[in-house]
Amino acid sequence: MEWFDTAGSGGAGRFHVQCTGYYVTVWVTCSSGSPINGPKRWQYQKAECRNGARITSGGYDASRT
């Protein structure tokens, strides 16, 4: 399951991914031009833009290890 919200700092975009039974890595590119990468986490991870920036693209990888 994946979803976006704007509950980050100053209304910044956030991208969430939940994959039961998998390690998840998430990344986004923000309207400020900054790429944001979240570390690998078990079952849930998010990536968040800074200071009110919008998400222009995002993606994720899920793996068993």
Descriptive account of the structure:
- There is one protein chain.
- By secondary structure, the chain is an all-beta fold.
- The protein has one domain.
- Strands 1, 2, 3, 4 and 5 form a 5-stranded antiparallel beta sheet that branches.
- The relative contact order is 0.34.
- The chain is built from no helices and 5 strands.
Mean pLDDT score:
95
Described by strand count, sense and barrel closure, the largest sheet is:
5 strands, antiparallel
Which range best describes the helical content: under 10%, 10-25%, 25-40%, 40-55%, 55-70% or over 70%? Answer: under 10%
Distance between the termini: 19 Å
Number of helices: 0
Radius of gyration equals 11 Å
How would you sum up this structure in a few lines?
The chain is mainly beta and 65 residues long. The chain contains no helices and five strands.
